[in-house]
Design a protein that fits this description.
- The structure is a homodimer.
- With about 210 residues, chain A is an all-alpha fold.
- Chain A folds into 2 domains: about 60 residues, Orthogonal Bundle (Arc Repressor Mutant, subunit A), CATH 1.10.10; about 120 residues, Tetracycline Repressor, domain 2 (Orthogonal Bundle), CATH 1.10.357.10.
- The first copy, chain A, is about 70% helix and about 0% strand.
- In chain A, helix 3 packs across helix 4, helix 5 packs antiparallel against helix 10 and helix 7 packs across helix 8.
- The first copy, chain A, is elongated.
- Chain B binds a DNA duplex (30 and 30 nucleotides) through helix 3.
DNA sequence: TACTGTGTCAAGTAGTCACTTGATTGAGGA
DNA sequence: TCCTCAATCAAGTGACTACTTGACACAGTA
């Protein structure tokens, strides 16, 4: 017989083993998939295929779809954190937030999906941390208000929410942008224009005085 | 024989036939389901159960899940239309928009889902009609701008988008609202407060001069 | 009374999903 | 050289999904 030696078939698959690399491949693919379709719409098969790894590794490393979602939420948190805590003029901070549509659209979309999938307090894993970060912004608004730079009737917390929602609009309401502005909401030139406009509005409200 | 009359077994199922009523039952249930979970997350089984009718009727009346989605999108259009075309002061119009979070949260959520599920022009069935309606708002802004009531550097179309995004925030970013404002984003009292604040901001920008 | 078409239903069907099982590979230590 | 264990894979599995099939009930009409 020609099969004298069992000849452990040299199966060409199975990449060079590297847990860190594999984790990162999965995380990157998951971020794109969840950002594109939300939690319910995302497919673990698509994530594995995009990452070029076996589906099972999603369970091995992240304990399933939900664990994976939590993991990318944490990763985005860190980035958002850097963004908001930088010591910049407030109008500049808001412009940067609007420009995330260019630099990190996945993160912005994740935040928007989170809003629609949100189901009462306790449902949002990172709500506490987010409130910490953004309350900082609201605090700065309040200080400016007491200094007389901002109208006294304004509620700093509400204004924070409004500015944030407005800054995200090129990502969260692209269909409206396309209809009203008549441009491709992902066009970098338009996004920069829009970011300028958001900063301008913030300035008009009194956020950029010395 | 005792069975002289075939006595057409009175199967207790099968409601009184009423196509109009059935259509409406399905539409109402579908609106709630799509608003709650988006298109991908909505389940036709859940819609049928909620409407108390057989799943098959969704195909009979609306030609499937997608046709049903189109049908409710049209229904919401009409309402949004009424809302924007009313001849009211612009700040009041914006307040009303923000108050839709109370009166028609499903419609607002549908709009938000539409943004995230949007995939380039041509994908949004109602984009044309929406742009017609909202461009009217932008036009009024432009007129006000030419009258000198609004800063010249502002782009009316962008401002329209910003105000709309801000007005929707209690529905589209409830997790952020909860974190920053520390309140239940669905609390009617808070929503009214928030609507006042959005109108106030619009006023500060110059939208409410005579 | 018989016929016809519309509205309704129960019971499929094929496909997809998240997740599981069990085996295989390689690296490092005994 | 053999053993162990972490990393990887292929091939399921049962649950669920949108959609289909085929039959039946009722109302109107002839």
């Amino acid at each position: 017989m020609s099969t004298s030696k069992p000849r452990r078939s040299p199966k060409p698959q199975e990449r060079q083993r590297d847990p860190e690399r594999t984790r990162k491949l999965i995380l990157d693919a998951a971020e794109a998939e969840f950002a594109a379709h939300g939690f319910a719409g995302a497919r673990t098969g698509a994530i594995a295929a995009q990452a070029g790894v076996n589906q099972q590794l999603i369970w091995y490393y992240f304990d399933g779809k939900e664990g994976l979602y939590r993991a990318i939420a944490e990763r985005w948190q860190e980035r958002e954190n850097d963004l908001v805590t930088q010591d910049l003029p407030m109008t500049e901070q808001i412009r940067r937030y609007a420009l995330e549509a260019l630099h990190n659209p996945n993160g912005v979309r994740l935040l928007a999906w989170g809003g629609l999938e949100y189901d009462g307090p306790g449902d949002d894993l990172d709500q506490e941390r987010r409130s910490d970060r953004l309350s900082g912004f609201a605090e700065r608004l309040r200080a400016r208000q007491e200094a007389g730079d901002l109208p006294a009737e304004l509620d700093p917390a509400c204004l924070t929410v409004m500015l944030m929602a407005a800054a995200m609009a090129t990502v969260s309401l692209p269909h409206v942008v396309a209809g009203v502005c008549g441009t491709d909401p992902r066009d970098p030139e338009f996004v920069r224009h829009y970011a300028d406009q958001v900063a301008l509005v913030a300035g008009l409200l009194g956020l950029d005085s010395p």
